[in-house]
Amino acid sequence: MSTIIYSSPIFGPVHSRRLGLSLGINLLPADGKVCSFDCVYCECGFNEEHRPQLPLPTRQEVAVALEHKLQQMTAEGRLPDVLTFAGNGEPTCHPHFPEIIDDTIRLRNQYCPEAKVSVLSNSTMIHRPAVHAALMRVDNNILKLDTVNPDYIRLVDHPAGNYDVDRIIDGMARFQGHVIVQTMFMQGDCNGESVDNTGDDYVLPWLDAVVRIAPQQVMVYTIDRETPTPGLLKATHEQLDRIADLVRQRGILCSVSY
Predict the structure, then answer these.
(1) CB distance 28 to 8 below 8 Å
(2) CA dihedral 155, 34, 30, 135 (to 10 degrees)
(3) d(CA 179, CA 172)
(4) How would DSSP label each residue in 75-123?
(5) Cβ 80 vs Cβ 115: under 8 Å
(6) Which of 116, 130, 146 is nearest to 22 (CA)?
(7) How far apart are CA 35 and CA 160, in angstroms?
(8) What is the DSSP letter of 15?
(9) CB–CB of 167/159 below 8 Å?
């Protein structure tokens, strides 16, 4: 099985299915994963198999590397559509995440003011006031909610610590619309248990939570790259389109990545 471990602190740019030409910002070490989830579908592999030896990049290292890359892209006449916090785990785990967001916005305004600042997060740190405030400052606050079923979350997302999905939903609602809900839909099985979350028994309770959150947008997507767990399958176009239509019927914008 192949996995993707991203360079740190800057990688790309890459073409994102959802965001366009994306310059990646990885606040985790370049040689492994640091994440509060251990998802069975993660393209970076499992946490235990990719324990880093290197430290987290410092705030200064991130700012210097980002400015250097933006200067290079400016000289090449190819500016990013988006600056995306993603990479080898959960970006909001970084102790200086709020300050790094401020640095990134400053550099974006200087070099590529049309670009959006996006954060891809699993939502586990949004209860922290400083993280919440920082996410309110970015353009695209993209938060994961794969389901509202606790058993499914334990099977698929493997959250660390005491994960309370109702608390997560409440935290997402506190963004008062400044949030994009991102959900992975798939089929197949994991260790003999079904991971199909495309049926109404999963979709309808999830949809109720989405309405409660009242996001500016929902992104539904499916597996795109090789996964560390065998047996996982892509959701079909028809399944994703059906789910997206249910979201749109509630008056919420929804995009689909097949």
Answers:
(1) yes
(2) 100
(3) 7
(4) HHT---SEEEEESSB-GGGSTTHHHHHHHHHHHHHHH-TTPEEEEEE-S
(5) yes
(6) 116
(7) 8
(8) E
(9) no
Alpha-carbon dihedral sign for residues 146, 51, 46, 118: positive
CA atoms within 13 A on the CB side of 21: 9
Q: What is the structure's pLDDT at 2? A: 56
Q: Using the 8-state DSSP alphabet, how is residue 47 labeled? A: G
Q: What is the model's pLDDT at position 195?
A: 97
Query: When comparing pLDDT for 215 and 18, which is higher?
Result: 215
Within 8 A by CB and 6+ apart from 220, the residues are 183, 185, 240, 243, 244, 247, 254, 255, 256, 257
pLDDT digits (tens, 9 = 90+) for 171-202: 999 999 999 999 999 999 998 999 999 999 99
Q: What gap in Å lies between CA 227 and CA 233, rounded to an integer?
A: 10
CA separation for the pair 208, 3 (Å, rounded): 34
Edge to edge, the sheet with strand 116-121 lists: 10-16, 20-26, 82-86, 116-121, 140-144, 180-184, 217-221, 254-257
Residues 6+ apart with CB under 8 A from 36: 89, 90, 93, 122, 124, 125, 159, 160, 161
Instruction: State percent of the chain over pLDDT 90.
Output: 89
Cβ within 8 Å of residue 228, ≥6 positions away: 1, 3, 40, 41, 42, 45, 46, 49
Q: What is the pLDDT of residues 98-130, one digit of tens each?
A: 999 999 999 999 999 999 999 999 999 999 999
